[in-house]
C-alpha cells in the first residue's frame, strides 16, 4: 500500500489487530546533524543508516551546493568529504523545503561562514519563526537580512564582522533548534564562546542530542547549570571515521501505538534504551496509558494492556513534542480523557498542530478542548465516525501518520498521504505490513447470477456484515429519479450519490427514512442502476461509502468490482457466474414467484445486452480478475454455492 507524492487520498481499511516487526528508518534529527558535522569536519566520514526522505534530501542538496563532496555508499549510506570548517562555495541560494533541522542549523553555520547566501523554503517554512536565532547570531556580529517578513525566512546572509567569543544570549522557548544550531556553528569561530539561554528551554532532549553528536565529532561543550553552555577555545570538528544513524524514535511511536491498540506485540528495531533521542520516552507515556512495553538495547516492543483497553493520561509533553502527537490519536481509543500540556511549540511546526489535531479529532467524533499550549481529548462516546471527505493532513507528515491509528475504529480516508515523505516515505506500506485489516469476501459476477443470495447467506453463516453494492447504484438511480435528475447527468448524479441518506438493516433498505427494498428492484430502476453505474464520477463518489461497510468482524460483499477496485486487498475473491440461459431461467422464476407476468425470451435478450454493456464499459468493467476463484453455479444449488464459498474462505485464512 505505497503512496505517491501527488496522491489525493489513501483509504485505510478498518484494522482489527497489529503485530510484527518494523525495522525503523534512520532518525531525521540525527541524519541531518551527522551530515552537517561530517561536512564541517576535517577528514572523511562514512554515515550508514541515513534516512532517505525530503528533510535529509534538502540537507544533502544544500551541502552539495556548498561544495561538499558526498557520495552514496551501499543501500542507505553516504561518504562525506569534510571541508574542515570552510565551505568551498562562498555564494549560493539554498532551498530547504520545510526542514527545520536543515534551515535552523545552516542559518547559524552560514552566518559564521563569511559568504553570501540566501536561504528559503516552502511557504510554511516562511511562517515558522527564526527571529530568536537571528537575534543571537546578530549579537555575534553576523549580517542577516529578512527577505520577507521580519523574524521569518527567507533570509539573506552576508559576510559580517563575526566575533564569536564572550557570552551570547539566545531564547529557547520557541524552538530548541535555535540553540542547537548556534552550538553546532560556534566551533567554526575557534575562540571560547558561552551561550546563555533566556526564557524556558523547550524540547530539551534535542539539545542533549546536539551535544552528544558534537562530542562524537570531537567538540566537548561544557555545561554550566541547565542554561549555560560553553564551547571551548580551539574546538574543531574531527571526523569519527564511521557513524551509524539510529532508527527514528518519533517514527517508532506510530508502531508502538499500533502494538498497544492492536494486541501486538509490535517490535520496532533500531532504537532502544541507550538511544540519544528523547522520543524513546514516548514508550513510557504509552506504558502510563497501560500498554505493556519492553525496552531492550536496540529494540522496543509494545503490547496491549492485559485488560485490553488503554486509559487516558495527563502529561507534560514538552520533552517529546513530535511523538506526543501520536498520543493524541491513541487517546481516541483510551478510557477517559487525555490531556497533553506544555506543547506550545506545536503551533509553529509543519502546521499549527494544536488547531489541526483538534479539528481532525473532532471530525472523528471526539470532543476536544484546546488552549494556547495544551490539548484535551475525550474519546467519541458512540464509536468513531469516519468523515467521507477524509482526514486533512495540512502538509504535515505527522498528521498523516497519527491519523492512520484511527483505522482501529473505522475505515479512514487520509488526504494527501504523500506528505509523509518529509520523514517516512514508505510509511503506509509499513503500516499495512503490521496491521491486519478486517477481512473481506468479495463476490463479483454478472446480473442474475445469484451472487447476492449467496453473499447474504455467507455473511449470515459467518456473522459478518453484508454489503449489496449494487443496491447503492439502484438507490442512486432512485434518488435521482425522485429529484428529477436524469440518468445521463454525470455530475448531478455524483452529488446525489455522495449525499445518499441510506440505511441497510437485516431485510430492508431505507432511503431518507423510507423503506425502498421493493422500489429499487423494479425493472425501470434496474435499468437506471446499470446506466448510472457507468459514470466514473458516480463510482468515485460511492467508493469510500462502500469501503465504510468494512467493519469488524468482517464483510461479505457482492457486486461488479468488489475484488478489483473497491476491496483489492480482499482475502477471498470470487467470480460467481452461471450460463446466461440458466440466469434467465432463474430471473423468470423469481418474477413468476413474485406474481409478475414474464416471458423468458426478453429476459434472455436483456441479460445478454447487460452482460455486454457491463463488460465493455471503460470504468471497472465486469471481468474475472486473476486472483478470483471462478464459481459457476449453473449446476449448483444455493446451499452448494454457499458451502463452496465458505470452503474457499476457510482455505484463505
Ligand atoms: O532539533 C531537532 O532535531 C528537532 C527539535 C524539535 O523541534 P523544536 O525544538 O522546535 O521543538 C522537533 O520538534 C523537531 O522535529 C526536531
Ligand atoms: C517539527 C518537525 O520538523 P522540523 O525538523 O521541520 O522542525 C517534525 O518532524 O515533527
CATH superfamily of the largest domain: Enolpyruvate transferase domain
CATH topology of the largest domain: UDP-n-acetylglucosamine1-carboxyvinyl-transferase, Chain
- CATH class division of the largest domain: Alpha Beta
Structural class: alpha/beta
Coarse morphology: elongated
Number of domains: 3
Q: Report strand order across the widest sheet.
A: 16-17-15-2-23
Radius of gyration over C-alpha positions, nearest whole angstrom: 30 Å
Distance between the termini: 20 Å
Helix content bin: 25-40%
Give the integer mean of the pLDDT values.
95
- Architecture of the largest domain in CATH? Alpha-beta prism
Beta strand %: 15-25%
Bound molecules: shikimate-3-phosphate, phosphoenolpyruvate
Q: Low-confidence stretches at least 5 residues in length (pLDDT < 50)?
A: none
Major sheet, described briefly? 5 strands, mixed
Give descriptors for this structure.
21 helices; alpha/beta; binds shikimate-3-phosphate; binds phosphoenolpyruvate; five-stranded mixed beta sheet; UDP-n-acetylglucosamine1-carboxyvinyl-transferase, Chain; elongated; 31 strands; Rossmann fold; 653 residues
Can you walk me through this structure?
Its EC number is 2.5.1.19, 2.7.4.25. Monomer. The mean pLDDT is about 95. The protein contains 21 helices and 31 strands. It is of the alpha/beta class and about 650 residues long. The structure holds shikimate-3-phosphate (S3P) and phosphoenolpyruvate (PEP). Shikimate-3-phosphate binds near residues 29, 101 and 345. Phosphoenolpyruvate (PEP) binds near residues 98, 100 and 423.
